[in-house]
Design brief:
Order of helices and strands: HHEEEEEEEEEEEE
Strand order of the largest sheet: 1-2-3-4-5-8-9-10-11-12
CATH architecture: Beta Barrel
CATH superfamily: Calycin beta-barrel core domain
Radius of gyration: 19 Å
Number of domains: 1
Number of helices: 2
Distance between the termini: 66 Å
Structural class: alpha+beta
Shape: globular
Largest sheet: 10 strands, antiparallel, barrel
CATH topology: Lipocalin
Number of strands: 12
Helix content: 10-25%
Length: about 160
């Protein structure tokens, strides 16, 4: 009887820890909070993240044109929904806002992989925090020829001068 009680106590404790971890954003994800400037090919890009609460980070993505003007491209959100972490970009197309959820598939200390296999492109969104001031992101999925297309974004944390 004591073995059974101990087994259930350990099992319950494990489920409690797993559940607790899935109901709030991890410490690692909070490290991307801030303003990031960078490039994707020849394009200058900007990404901004703000930690709102243990369940939500909000952000925005933009491009910077040759004149230095910032052109907003998407609203971003990382959110806990029903115990799972989602990356949700929202785009305005033809006057309507379309949000596409990508579920957190893999997480390491400074790496996050979000997937949505039912989306056309991208199917995968990845972030790597290479150090506290440098971040890489990529989007990838199938191209029109059946191969894989990947677009990389290299960011540096913006520092006020």
């Amino acid at each position: 009887m004591k073995k059974k009680t101990l087994y259930f106590a350990i099992l319950f404790s494990s489920f409690t820890q797993i559940s607790k971890a899935q109901n709030q954003l991890t410490v690692g994800l909070k490290k991307i909070a801030g303003t990031w400037v960078g490039t994707s090919g020849q394009q200058k890009v900007l990404e901004n993240w703000m930690y709102v609460n243990p369940h939500l980070m909000i952000g925005s993505g933009a491009t910077i044109n040759e004149k230095g003007d910032t052109i907003p491209s998407e609203a971003l959100k990382i959110s806990i929904i029903r115990g799972m972490t989602f990356y949700i970009p929202s785009l305005r197309t033809q006057g309507k806002i379309k949000s596409t959820p990508f579920m957190l598939e893999k997480e390491e200390e400074s790496y996050w992989r979000f997937t949505n296999n039912s989306h056309d492109f991208p199917k995968v969104i990845e972030y790597w925090l290479t150090d506290i001031n440098h971040m890489k992101a990529s989007i990838s999925g199938a191209d029109e020829n059946g191969g894989t297309k990947t677009i990389d974004f290299i960011f540096e944390r913006y520092k006020m001068k």
